[in-house]
Design a protein that fits this description.
The complex is a heterodimer of chains A (74) and B (289).
Chain A lengths: L9 E4 L2 E4 L6 H7 L8 E4 L2 E3 L14 E9 L2
Parallel strand pairs in A: 1-5
Antiparallel strand pairs in A: 1-2, 3-4, 3-5
Chain B lengths: L9 H4 L8 E3 L2 E3 L3 E4 L6 H11 L3 E8 L20 E4 L7 H18 L6 E4 L12 H13 L3 E6 L3 H9 L4 E4 L13 H12 L8 E3 L5 H10 L3 E4 L1 H4 L4 H21 L24
The chains are: A mainly beta (74), B alpha/beta (289).
């Protein structure tokens, strides 16, 4: 999913391509999709990123990101 | 509201011998019902059903958030973490690796909330979509990984006693055999297997928690499971999809209590022929063969 030469780098968020957020910041990404401050967990390329480390992660394009929350289930 | 919980101490309050509480992973649960939060028409109805069921431990699923509709309600707005222990599941996972990933995301969500149940997981590794039966090989592998990773694993499995014993040996905090397929409402299809599970899992460890997970259709299924001697029942669809979920939630609470009391009381043996309850002596006529 990473951008080729001359293309805007993209990341994959919950299976959908998204432009790289400003400064490649995960925290900015959460703000852009309106999820900052909500109960959620974030995984980057299969690794959970604790909330305390969200601000320090820098994305460079191509990453697969999952943002999840709790829903009803049995 | 009035206290409706199935507390382990309410037996004593009724002048009965105290029951042993249900303890999972060192944590005492007040209710022997674990109730799922799926399939309710509204979160408000879900919340009311949970109250009426008396449960203090509820399952939740881990799913992608809806990115375009972030204004929607979140289930956590309707679940008081001080009242309910949240048990994230790995529903929908068909491999051990997927289940471990989802378990870790659930743990992160709980840690983010400051929950003290962050390391609890209801592990499901499913075999196929039609039956939703557990994949025993994947379930064993995921149990081993999650236990090594510090999780308190409550594991959904079939009613196969040999697999149940393996899961306990791998360090599962509770083994949760299915009564019948998830959401099928068929009740307890093989009570004999459950009895063997109980014997295998509790023989040298009577307090080891065995919880029937899945298949409950109505209140008598819960009572029947509890009468076998299981420590609890986990259910969801039977309440959420009942014509009147609130009343069914209340019925489940009563059935769980009734079944537990009946198990502790010790049922009479089944006999082929009748035994009269009224005395033979003193009848005014001598008749009958």
């Amino acid at each position: 999913m990473s951008g080729g030469a001359g293309e805007t780098p993209v990341i994959t968020v919950n299976g959908q391509p998204q432009p790289l957020p400003r400064e490649g910041s995960l925290a900015v990404l959460l703000e852009e999709v309106g999820l900052a401050g909500r109960p959620l967990a974030v995984e980057v390329d299969g690794e959970v990123v604790p909330r305390s480390r969200l601000a320090e992660i820098r994305l460079c394009g191509g990453e697969r990101i999952e943002i999840v929350t709790f829903v009803g289930g049995g | 509201m009035a206290e409706v919980r199935d507390t382990a101490t309410d037996h004593a309050e009724q002048g009965l011998a105290a029951d042993r509480p249900l303890v999972v992973g060192g944590v005492r649960l007040e209710s022997r019902l674990v109730v799922g939060t799926g399939k309710y028409v509204t979160y408000a109805e879900m919340a009311r059903c949970l109250e009426l069921s008396g449960t203090d431990c509820v399952t939740v699923a881990v799913r992608r958030d809806r990115l375009l509709n972030a204004a929607g309600e979140n289930i956590l707005d309707h679940l008081d973490p001080a009242r309910y222990r949240l048990l994230p599941n790995t529903a929908g996972c068909f491999t051990a690796d997927e289940a471990v990933r989802v378990a870790r995301l659930g743990r992160e969500l709980l840690r983010d909330m400051g929950s003290d149940s962050a390391d609890w997981v209801k592990l499901e590794v499913l075999g196929d979509r039609q039956t939703l039966l557990p994949d025993p090989v994947g379930t064993l592998a995921a149990t081993e990984q999650l236990v090594a990773d510090g999780f308190t694993v409550l594991v959904y499995t079939s009613d196969d006693p040999v697999v149940a014993r393996r899961l306990k040996q791998l360090g599962a905090a509770a083994v949760m055999p299915a009564g019948s397929p998830i959401g099928s409402g068929q009740g307890i299809l093989n009570p004999n297997n459950l009895l063997i599970c109980l014997e295998y899992l509790k023989d040298d460890d009577p307090a080891y928690p065995v919880i029937v997970d899945a298949g409950v259709g109505t209140a008598s299924d819960v009572a029947a499971a509890m009468e076998l001697g299981v420590d609890g029942v986990l259910l969801n669809t039977a309440i959420a999809q009942a014509a009147d979920p609130l009343r069914m939630a209340s019925a489940m609470r009563d059935a769980c209590r009734a079944g537990r009391h009946a198990f502790l009381a010790g049922r009479i043996p089944r006999r082929l022929y009748a035994t009269a309850s009224s005395p033979d002596d003193g009848r005014i006529v001598e008749s009958g063969t």
